[in-house]
Structure formats: C-alpha cells, structure tokens
C-alpha cells in the first residue's frame, strides 16, 4: 500500500509534469507568436524555457531515475575501448572497398538483365 508521503510525492510529480508541459507549450506557441522577432532572441528564449522545463522534470521521481541512468551510461562509456586511428582508417577502407565491390556487382547484374530483357523484347 502507498504511504501518505508517496501519495503526496506522486501528486506533486503530476503537478511538476504539468508545469513541464505548460513550459513546452509556451515555448511552441511563443515561438510561433513572436516569429517576426530575431531568431537569436527566440532561440535564447527556447533554450531558457527548455532548461527550466528540464530542471523541473529532473525534480520528479522519473526525472531522478533518468538522471541516474545518464550517470550510469556515462560510466559505461568510459569503459569502452575505442579504436586507434590506424584501426579506424583500416576498417573504413575495408568498408568503402566492400561497398564499391557490391555496387559494381549490382551494376553489372542490372546491366546484364537489362541487356537480356532488351534482347528478348526486341
């Protein structure tokens, strides 16, 4: 059963998500309404509204869980062994050559089929 604190926290979470939705709606409608204004000012206003909306969203339970997920993902990314530059170049060359070979094969088959169909039709 949900405790009283959990119930009020979830009620506050719903209100916070409503605030996030209203902020996003203000950004969308405001951007349209002020379309004659400078693009720089509109972008700055949208960035500020986005940051405020993100801040409010991160105050909810789901937002905190998402923030934790981002932190854990960052830790996992640090564990990745990235290829060296020579490995990267070698792999890229292999992929490009393979794509060119397959493209030439497909072009050849297409030309052969076109030639056969043209010969058959007359």
TrEMBL record:
| Cell location | Membrane
One Pfam assignment: SecE
Q: Please give the start and end residues of each transmembrane region.
A: 12-33, 39-58, 88-107
Q: Write down the superkingdom of origin.
A: Bacteria
UniProt KW Heme keyword: no
Can you name a GO cellular component term? plasma membrane
Q: Which UniProt keywords apply?
A: Cell membrane, Membrane, Protein transport, Translocation, Transmembrane, Transmembrane helix, Transport
Q: GO molecular function: any one?
A: protein transmembrane transporter activity
Q: Which example biological process does GO assign this protein?
A: intracellular protein transmembrane transport
- PANTHER family from the entry? PROTEIN TRANSLOCASE SUBUNIT SECE (PTHR33910:SF1)
- Describe its function: Essential subunit of the Sec protein translocation channel SecYEG. Clamps together the 2 halves of SecY. May contact the channel plug during translocation.
Self-association state and partner proteins as the record states: Component of the Sec protein translocase complex. Heterotrimer consisting of SecY, SecE and SecG subunits. The heterotrimers can form oligomers, although 1 heterotrimer is thought to be able to translocate proteins. Interacts with the ribosome. Interacts with SecDF, and other proteins may be involved. Interacts with SecA.
Family recorded in the similarity comment: Belongs to the SecE/SEC61-gamma family.
- The identity of this protein, by name, is Protein translocase subunit SecE
Gene source species: Marinobacter profundi
């Amino acid at each position: 059963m949900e405790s009283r604190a959990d119930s009020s926290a979830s009620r506050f979470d719903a209100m916070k998500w409503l605030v996030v939705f209203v902020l996003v709606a203000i950004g969308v409608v405001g951007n349209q309404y002020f379309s004659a204004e400078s693009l720089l000012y509109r972008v700055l206003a949208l960035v500020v509204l986005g940051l405020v909306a993100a801040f409010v969203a991160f105050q909810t339970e789901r937002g905190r869980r998402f923030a934790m997920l981002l932190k854990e993902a960052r830790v996992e990314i640090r564990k990745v062994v990235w290829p060296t530059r020579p490995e990267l170049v070698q792999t890229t060359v292999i992929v490009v050559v393979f794509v060119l070979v397959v493209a030439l094969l497909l072009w050849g088959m297409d030309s052969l089929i076109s030639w056969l169909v043209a010969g058959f039709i007359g």
